[in-house]
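Changelog note: in this version the structure field was regenerated for every chain. One regenerated record is shown below for reference.
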Amino acid sequence: MKGAQKLRKYMMGLGASEVYYLATIKSVNKDNDTCVVVDDEGYEYTNVQLQATTEGKKGHKLYPVTDSDVLVERIDKETHVLRMYTEVESFSIEIGTLKFEAAELFEIKKGNETLLKLLQDIIKEVSLILPTQGTPPNVAALNLIAQRAAQLLK
């Protein structure tokens, strides 16, 4: 298990080996925020939660890399939750209507508004400026885009 040494050392410091166990990620299901893990003894656990709460999809989630090592907490006989990761593929944070996701690319979203869409709209409007022909920029449209940015970004 790659990365298991550091996790094992941390686990020993917890002094609760019956509550925590080391495992390797077999697969990740981002749709229901769970994963399948295999422990040191080869036992497979399905539906291991990526976050402690299952109430809604809000909060933060780390999505581990397949075949990476993790520390799992056994909450009860049926409920297991990832607690530490050696490698993360992506993450998601949702607070109210604000959503931020990152992996190879990242997305900042509030409601239906995304940073990418906002930037595309700015580029579209600026591209309409034809200074060689003396056409002024569409100030009204640029002001609306600026207002949208103020609602999306701090």
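Spot check on this record: The chain has a mean pLDDT of 84. Helices lie at 4-14, 115-127, 139-152.
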